[in-house]
Amino acid sequence: MASYCKAFVLICLVALLATCTLVASKEFGVVNTVPSAEFEDFIGSPSTLTAVYFYKRRLQRLKHFLESFDAAASFMKLYQVQFGRVNCDIDPVAAYCDKPDVDMSVFAFRNDRVEAKFALDTMYDRDAIASNIFQVLLSSEVPVLQSWIDLSHQQQRYMGDKDIIFSWQKAIGTYQHRVFMEFAFAYGSTYKFVFATNKKVAEEADLRDAKSVKEPAIWVLHCSEEEKTAKTCRQTRFQHSIVLADVLAFVRTLKTPYYVDMPINQEPTPYETMNLHLVYVATDNSNEHEAREVADKLGRALRGQAGVILLNVDTASEITLESLATDTERLREVPVVAVQLYGQDTMHFMHHFSEGPLVEDLEVLLSEHRRSTERKKIIQDEDEGFDEPDEEVQDDVVAEAVYRGRYAQLDLTYAPALTDKTFPAMLKEKSLLVVVFYLSWEPRSAAFLSSYSEASLDLKDEPSNSSPLARVACDDWPDVCQLNNVSSYPVTKVYRDGQYLKDYRGMLDTTALVNFVKLLQLPAPVELKTVEEVTNFREHVLSAGATDTAVLGLMGQEDQAEIETFTSAARELQGLFILGLVKDKALAQEVGSMYGSSVPGVVVVKRDDQYQPFKLFSGKIFHKPSLVKFIQLASLPVFPELTPKNFPSFFIQDKPFVILFGGRGEELESVGQIAAAEELPVVFCQMNMVSPASWEQTFSSSMCQMLVFLHWSWSSTRREECLSTLTPMTSQRTR
Questions:
Q1: Are 722 and 712 in contact (CB under 8 A)?
Q2: 3-state helix, strand, coil in the chain (%, to 5)
Q3: Which of 129, 134, 417, 441: disulfide with 181, CB 3.0–4.6 Å?
Q4: How does residue 397 score in pLDDT terms, banded at 50, 70 and 90?
């Protein structure tokens, strides 16, 4: 029986290993599995770059990486880069597999030496992997410039010898960087490729349009045509987005002549297969010398955008002229320049023949055509339900932001990752624990982790000398998340003295989270026993910055029901506001007299509300829901500047908006007084315009201009009643 059991266990282990090997092989596809005995030879090639991943465990969040690693391996074969993986579970290479977290990086080897190590966070997709590998592969051939001085040195070095192709890239690891490095690999012997990730390099080098470009861009510096003594090289900017096909077409044009003569007998020009606009410089024999100078200068200025053709109407056949333009008489009015936009048959005749205005007008024409074409393509793609490839555009703004920032390294030292073992231990250790539960691959989780990292660094210097933040990756520890009732991601939960307290429901940004945690560390409520303590409490709260609101509960010892309700409300609102409680009737009356409040009473004091600096609660203090709702609403300014951050707080009130656009001085004061009176069931707010002068041209400057947004659910009668009430009040107060 014992031997049977041993045999059964052995069979199970063999089956398990076979299954693991099969699964891993399926996930890696074309990537070679490297036996430990062959590992040194595999990474020892002096001429080949080798990318290796040390595989340890099969996690769901690694699935996308493994697929991308496999896709990159297939793609990078073209560039003589070999990919491999070591299975640390079955056939480990001890020197690496024994290291903790070795499976969270990709290693690049050359000549038996580690050239680079990439965290998986930076190997986001196929393009990110290929881009990073290209960067190592071409590190000595394609320098990363740090300043405009570096670019100046490159120009001086290659002046009169070789053209420089320079690019500004937002980061290494993007699709655009991958494309640029592909061309550097293919054309490195013809051009000198350099790039910078700091846009100031392009701006301070005075490259064309550098200050206005928003996305990665490419410039060609034509140093080969300059004299050795020249200071800078003439430049051409690539006008399109960095897409492989467009960049290829652009690079091909760099070796064409500045202009060509119109071929005889309708033979093709060098521009025929390049998808270029065509610029015809028409002349006769008497103007040919001047026309050639203009054609040469236009060819240099429009390099990569248009091909320039010199057309002599005295030597061209009638058939040639008729094939070019229906208006052959206009074409004979030499000298003249005409443009045939790519994909069109008609000619656009220019109004100048001198170089300066011509170049400017031509560039405007080509730019407008490019924008029009792009708009038409967008509309066509939308009509056809076309989806952009994942490597270029993500499907929502959060995913796009994460995609753009995926190369950023997060410092989560002070927000440690918890496991099923360390989570209970941390609950016991810390009196206050704030934990974010997230999915590593989910865009909103990744976006919030950036803010979470910054918040942990801000909080590490608190008096407690330790940040209360921690995190749990639910794709790694689903059992921990299930035990804590996590059903959406990301979610941040607060624990006090080992017990769940509440969820964080504020903005997913650094400042809001830091303020929330700081307020959690204060008592709820703070007991106040003297006038001095009340004054210090109010002034400290309104100057500390964690909240704009101080809430004072004014009670006597006999008001036990009100005290209990206020205390319960303070605990519910902890993290959002600071609530102070006076339990001495004489003191409460003295403080209440400052605000005109009765006892028992509640006063909400606001720091940034000049029109309503405080508000009194007039309901039944022992009714907690009413008190909580009052504090939440009373904390809002009555006439705020409307912003994306505060808009939800006002919109949720289900009231129409009255918005003052571009008001000044007396206008603001008048509307602020109306808002503070709270006589109308509306939300008053203001929006400062960037250029008030432009609004004065549209609206009369002699009166307060207001736009009323009435709630869509209101009946027309209710809207008219509101408007009829509002109009005389605003006109009277602003007259």
A1: no
A2: 45, 20, 35
A3: 134
A4: very low
